[in-house]
From TrEMBL, chain A:
UniProt KW Repressor keyword: yes
Keyword Nucleus: yes
Keywords, in A-Z order: Auxin signaling pathway, Nucleus, Repressor, Transcription, Transcription regulation
Organism annotation: Hibiscus sabdariffa
Family statement: Belongs to the Aux/IAA family.
Oligomer and partners: Homodimers and heterodimers.
Family matches, as InterPro entries: AUX/IAA_dom (IPR033389), AUX_IAA (IPR003311), PB1-like (IPR053793)
Its biological purpose: Aux/IAA proteins are short-lived transcriptional factors that function as repressors of early auxin response genes at low auxin concentrations.
Subcellular locations according to the entry: Nucleus
The PB1 domain, residue ranges: 142-230
SUPFAM superfamilies attached to this UniProt entry: CAD & PB1 domains
Record's protein name: Auxin-responsive protein
TrEMBL record, chain B:
Residue ranges annotated for the F-box domain, each copy included: 9-50
The protein's name: F-box domain-containing protein
Lineage: Eukaryota, Viridiplantae, Streptophyta, Embryophyta, Tracheophyta
InterPro entries found in the cross-reference section: COI1_F-box (IPR041567), F-box-like_dom_sf (IPR036047), F-box_dom (IPR001810), Leu-rich_rpt_Cys-con_subtyp (IPR006553), LRR_dom_sf (IPR032675), Transp_inhibit (IPR041101)
Domain of life: Eukaryota
Keyword Amino-acid biosynthesis: no
Pfam families the UniProt entry points to: F-box_5 (PF18511), Transp_inhibit (PF18791)
Organism: Hibiscus sabdariffa (roselle)
């Protein structure tokens, strides 16, 4: 039933009122090879629906006008005359005005609303600190640090400002990554958290006060505990 | 012909009967039964929904429905959300407010979506409608806090002010102080879209404190966690609450205050907000979790373990919005804890990254489809998919009404078989007979459109990107989808033939959007010339389409049905084709 969003007159609603109205031809030719019997039958109904009054007949447009609406003859062959073969496909690498840093992005893809994109940008913008740490330069609120675990392909990022102690950070990270390695949850005892500090050394997390730690940490890595001389 | 008794009911009786008929569809049906019913119905219609503000003019609406109390208008096409519609395209509400100011002095409700609203419009609303109650601005733009101040000051009986997802110009943080002390009627206030520091918190607290009927309150990011406990204590009757920033210094009293505040809210069913979440404060929510039906964690950068802990308390959850930090493991937990789940939206945390940063795959969605039998509505961003997974999902959830899948990289094939995802989406449309909305992604040929045309008989809205091989794809959709109202297409090899062959179909739809396809300017001209009840708009920001050969494809095409003819507010980069074949501009 056509949508009566706006006034169309007082005739009783006729379903498919304009189905036979095709600007490609007069509706007299059967389209060939539309692909599939179903589609062909559908198309046939579409092109020769004589059982219902057409909109034109009901509302008095002249036969003359109806007949002149031959606009494009199409036999239904897909890509028969490829008019636009020469037309170059639109380039995909348009720069989105809103994020100048991220070139080679397709405009409007992935389909995420602008205000959501702004939140991501705050999380992933490269700050002055360097490639490993990403700071929210506007408010200094978040510090994103890359986290890897031996044997796991995914590199995650965590905002270490949201954790207040080694315990919560370590527990959360190990729980998170342990699943990827298909080992038991909460298997804290087998793994330790290490970090790359400002000087470029890999150290075991936990020795320095938390506040100093978050100022110094560049990257995090979870490794399996091994028997060592000094543990 | 014998006069039937029924038609001799006095008008007042019919009007009384009609007052029970609320839905637009039914009202429209009533109005075409006969002339007298048309007359009676139009005088007692109180609510009007206009899905495209350019489909009809304000004067026409007012002429037909003189006693409207509530109006809903939508402006820009949906793809405007993703920056595909240039600024200045249109969707201005001022002409509507201007006409209604004179004609509907008793207007109570205005709901707008994707429209350009100016401070002038807001001031006019505040001045013109003495009994104004509800203002909803969904994804609108063009106004500032000055306009909001006018609304606050001028609308004495305001019950609802909802600015969801709108873009507001921050001029002053004190617009909230313009609510007079006598204002106690607020039921719903959503200011979550306001940027930082735009809200006077003390004014907000006083407002909340004096509105005993306040049911829904959504704060903005600027409000920090330590302030929430106070607000909740002032309004323990809240049903829907949006926090601000869920972060503050770790202090022992904050957690206990917060926990107490939340547990005093016995009616709380819906939570949102949660910017910058400190995981240590999440346990404050546990007491309300079991009652929650709706949870929006889509700004929360908490990871899977914390999400799982939270969600496993939410046994009544019906609607979850979350980032892909939830990962497959979290979705599995969701599937086992939340058996009443009806709607799930998973947003990408790093949509522009090349490598996946989370372990969220097709497996997560399969788990949810298996564990949540009431699942009806899905929006899922992921990086890989298989036909097999989609078939399983379709078989598990034949009740889907909304299915939107976004595989982040365009034209991604089934990662196991390397085939297109035609069969998978085909299964979705075949099994889900009530499907009303579908968004496609991944590698897709014309075949998927054949499935859609064959099976998706209730489909009303279809979104297509980077899909199909030829015009046949578009033809399948236009000729097969009987209920189609909105079709939006980008970057597909669809051209003139299917469009012209199905020109008449376009009059049965609200609108068609095609961008970066291969529809020629000549075809657009023809369409505009021959179809008098369609507005055919060509959008091109680089140069006028008539300066190129007619066979050149247009950049963007927006076709919509209208009974008010071409609009008069087009910007320089929009052309429309009129009946004489002239290009209006």
């Amino acid at each position: 039933m056509p949508n009566m969003e706006f006034e169309l007159g007082l005739a009783l609603p006729t379903p498919n009122i304009i189905k036979g109205f095709d600007l490609n031809n007069l509706g007299l030719d059967q389209p060939k090879d539309m692909g599939g019997l179903e589609a062909r039958n559908k198309a046939a109904r579409c092109f020769s629906d004589k059982s219902k009054r057409s909109f034109e007949q009901a509302f008095g447009n002249s036969e003359e006008e109806y007949k002149t609406k031959t606009l494009l003859l199409w036999s239904g062959q897909p890509n028969e005359e490829d008019d636009h073969k020469d037309q170059k496909k639109r380039t995909f690498s348009t720069i989105d005005e809103n994020d100048a840093e991220e070139v080679d992005q397709v405009v409007g893809w992935p389909p995420i609303k602008t205000w959501r994109k702004k939140i991501f940008q705050q999380q992933h913008r490269v700050g002055r600190i360097g490639n490993n740490r990403v700071a929210d330069t506007d408010s200094g609120r978040s510090i994103y640090v890359k986290v890897k675990m031996e044997g796991v392909a995914i590199t995650r990022k965590v905002d270490i400002r949201l954790y207040h102690s080694y315990q919560t950070l370590t527990n959360s990270l190990i729980t998170l990554f342990a699943r990827d390695k298909k080992c038991a949850d909460d298997d804290y005892t087998r793994y330790i958290l290490t970090y790359l500090d400002k000087e470029g050394d890999w150290l075991i997390a936990g020795d320095i006060p938390w506040q100093s730690f978050i100022r110094s940490v560049q990257r995090l890595k979870i490794i399996q505990k091994i028997c060592t001389f000094w543990s | 012909m014998q006069k039937k008794r029924a038609y001799s009911f006095p008008d007042e009786v019919l009007e009384h009967v009609f007052s029970f008929i609320q839905s637009d569809k039914d009202r429209n049906a009533v109005s075409v039964v006969c002339k007298s019913w048309y007359e009676i119905e139009r005088w007692c219609r109180r609510k009007v929904f206009i899905g495209n503000c350019y489909a009809v003019s304000p004067k026409m609406v007012i002429k037909r429905f003189p006693e409207v109390r509530s109006i809903e208008l939508k402006g820009k096409p949906h793809f405007a959300d993703f920056n595909l519609v240039p600024d200045g395209w249109g969707g201005y509400v001022l002409p509507w407010i201007g006409e209604m100011a004179g004609a509907y002095p008793w207007l109570e409700e205005i709901r707008l979506k994707r429209m350009v609203v100016t401070d002038e419009s807001l001031e006019l609303i505040a001045k013109s409608f003495k009994n104004f109650k509800v203002l909803v601005l969904f994804s609108c733009e063009g106004f500032s806090t000055d306009g909001l101040a006018a609304i606050a000051a001028g609308c004495k009986n305001l019950s609802e002010l909802d600015l969801r997802e709108s873009e507001v110009d921050d001029l002053s943080g004190h617009w909230l102080t313009h609510f007079p002390e006598t204002c106690t009627s607020l039921v719903s206030l959503n200011i979550s879209c306001l940027g930082s520091d735009e809200v006077s918190f003390s004014a907000l607290e006083r407002l909340v404190g004096r509105c005993p009927n306040l049911r829904s309150l959504r704060l903005n990011r600027a409000v920090s966690l330590d302030k929430i406990a106070n607000i909740l204590c002032l309004a323990p009757q809240l049903v829907d609450f949006g926090t601000g920033n869920y972060t503050t210094e770790l202090r022992p009293d904050v957690l206990s205050n917060l926990t107490a505040a939340f547990s005093s809210c016995k009616e709380l069913k819906s939570l949102s907000g949660f910017w910058d979440v400190v995981p240590a404060y999440l346990p404050a929510l546990y007491s309300v979790c079991s009652r929650l039906t709706s949870l929006n964690l889509s700004y929360a950068t908490i990871h899977s373990p914390e999400i799982i802990k939270l969600v496993s308390h939410c046994s009544s959850l019906q609607c979850l919005l979350v980032l892909d930090y939830i990962e497959d493991s979290g979705l599995e937990a969701l599937a086992s804890s939340c058996k009443d789940l009806q709607e799930l939206r998973v947003f990408p945390s790093d949509p522009f990254g090349v490598e996946p940063n989370v372990s969220l795959t097709e497996k997560g969605l399969v788990s949810v489809s298996l564990g949540c039998p009431k699942l009806q509505s899905v929006l899922y961003f992921c990086r890989r998919m298989t036909n097999a997974a989609l078939v399983t999902i379709a078989q598990n959830c034949p009740n889907f009404t909304h299915f939107r899948l976004c595989i982040i990289e365009p034209k991604t094939a089934d990662y196991m078989t390397l085939e297109p995802l035609d069969v998978g989406f085909g299964a979705i449309v075949e099994h889900c007979k009530d499907l009303r909305r579908l968004s496609l992604s991944g590698l897709l040929t014309d075949r998927v459109f054949e499935y859609i045309g064959t099976y998706a008989k209730k489909l009303e809205m279809l979104s297509v990107a980077f899909a199909g091989d030829s015009d046949l794809g578009l033809h399948h959709v236009l000729s097969g989808c009987e209920s189609l109202r909105k079709l939006e297409i980008r970057d597909c090899p669809f051209g003139d033939k299917a469009l012209l062959a199905n020109a008449a179909k376009l009059e049965t739809m609200r609108s068609l959007w095609m961008s970066s396809c291969t529809v020629s300017f000549g075809a657009c001209k023809l369409l505009g010339q021959k179809m008098h009840r369609l507005n055919v708009e060509v959008i091109d920001e680089t140069e006028p389409p008539c300066s190129r050969p007619k066979s050149c494809p247009v950049d963007k095409l927006y076709v919509y049905r209208s009974i008010s003819g071409p609009r008069s507010d087009m910007p320089p980069f929009v052309w429309t084709m009129d009946e004489e074949g002239t290009i209006l501009h």
